[in-house]
Amino acid sequence: MAIEPGDVVVLKSGGQPMTVAAVDEGNVECLWLGDEGELFRETIPSVALSVVADIEADDDLDVEDDDDEEEHEEAGHDDEDADEEKSSKKKRRSA
Questions:
Q1: Which long-range contacts (CB under 8 A, 24 or more apart) does 53-57 make?
Q2: Tag placement on the chain: N or C end, fewer CB within 10 Å?
Q3: How far apart are CA 34 and CA 92, in angstroms?
Q4: Which pLDDT tens digit goes with each residue over 46-76?
């Protein structure tokens, strides 16, 4: 997979995530924030980097959230059925 601007990468030897700002031949310009919020910029050979995240991975998270909402809605319908059943029982008792 080719490294492109906007990709999140790390050194193959480890370290914190960096954002790719530019790619020029075999070199990649990376940006990252230090522990105290300072911005760092360094050019690193592409052979030393691995891509760790992309935009498509974020889209997959949205799908899972949608599934959770559907399950919650289905559970809500079960609660409504239970409430109707209780109301019917109360009506029968009073009759």
A1: 53/7, 53/8, 53/17, 54/7, 54/8, 55/6
A2: C
A3: 69
A4: 999 999 965 555 555 555 555 555 555 555 5
In a domain, 2, yes or no: no
Q: Which domain holds residue 13?
A: 8-53
For residue 8, the SS3 value is strand
Same domain, residue pair 62 and 94: yes
> Going by C-beta distance under 8 Å and a sequence separation of 6 or more, which residues neighbour residue 95?
none
Give the integer Cα–Cα distance in Å for 22 and 54: 16
pTM: 0.56
